[in-house]
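Lab notebook: predicted structure, single chain.

Context: the supervisor wants predicted structures on file for every construct in the current expression panel, including those that have not yet been purified. This is the next one on the list. No modifications to the sequence; it matches the entry in the shared construct table.
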Amino acid sequence: MTEQTNLDRPAPTRSGIPSNTIFVGQKPLMSYVTAIVMQLNSGSKELSVKARGRMISQAVDVVEVCRRRFFAGKLNIKEIAIGTEVLGDEGEKRNVSTIEIKLAKTD
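Prediction complete. Output recorded below exactly as produced.
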């Protein structure tokens, strides 16, 4: 049995989400650190880390672990964007804070 790969096929996206975007959720911190390290070592020069609500502090921790332990001096914060999303149905709307941290790898 031989396995064929199609190099012309673009990287799969998650329903319109760019492949260089990592959403921080409830997984362990090192899962996201590993995802960032793998993404940057695969040739990407820029990456976006997004989180909302209580996960904002974990997103900041993930970025700092990457910057200090894995890419000391080679990973810069390009931009930080904060905002608010309105979630819920008409009667139960609530505001949820969001953050997007854009990272750039220097050689």
